[in-house]
Amino acid sequence: MTTRVAAELGVDISTSELALAVRDAAGNQGYVSTPMRGATCWQNDAAFPGFDLQQLPVMFAELLEKLEAEGWKFDAAGTVSVSCRQHDMVLLDVGGQMLLPALSWQCNAATKEVAWLREQGVEEHVGPIAERFVLPKLRCVLQRDASLANRIGTVFLTGDWLAWSLTGARTLSSSDAVSNGLLTQKTRLKADHAFATAGFSNEWFPAVARSGEIVGAVQPPSTTDRTWHAIKQRLQGWSFVA
After folding, report:
1. 225 vs 10: CA distance, rounded Å
2. DSSP 34-61
3. How many CA atoms lie within 13 A of 24 on its CB side?
4. Is the whole model's pTM more than 0.85, yes or no?
5. Tens digits of per-residue pLDDT, 30-75?
6. What kind and span of H or E run contains 115?
7. Within 10 A of 147 (CB to CB), how many other CB atoms are there?
8. Strands 17-24 and 4-13, how do they pair?
9. Which of 2, 26, 176, 203 has CA atoms 20 to 30 A from the CA of 95?
């Protein structure tokens, strides 16, 4: 079996599968995938489909093992990036715990919220919005359960949550955020006006990470958190790129 040392790792998170693509310094490539797990609904309501993200690190570790079985090594530091379901909405409390499943692009319950936000003129700042976007989806969720507003610590996209879980860096990927009504179109900065209009706290939304920017380094595995241990053990010191 040929042994190759990985230099780049791409993580692809879709509705149907999780895939890892890897490449070494010479350009040799590998690819593994597995069917997506964790599909669920918030409050058992089919109008709010999403994913239990706690399944992701388990699947991720399984795929890294498959790559190793094919001769790939992760001995040298490299770069890791993620391509993800673009409209997943992740809500964490102040301690970093999930408040609900990651509501996906398949969640189109925010019809009234889209109409209301349009009436308020937010599209002048963030561009056209749709029901699957995080901006109206978050307002829809808070209209349904107002108690969440006092518990939210962070609003993420799934790719941001993955980056934070591995590096500890709390950021919003600009490419996903701008496609969810969370950034002002002209400046690519957080959409403060839209947040205030919708009744959101600006503090819920992390600083913006530009595409290609290094978010942080994958942290050493923790003896107290086994969820990410197998992944961090292999990718410790790798740079996570937005």
Report:
1. 24
2. EE---EEEGGG-TTSEEE-TTHHHHHHH
3. 14
4. yes
5. 999 999 999 999 999 999 999 999 999 999 999 999 999 999 999 8
6. helix 111-119
7. 7
8. antiparallel
9. 176
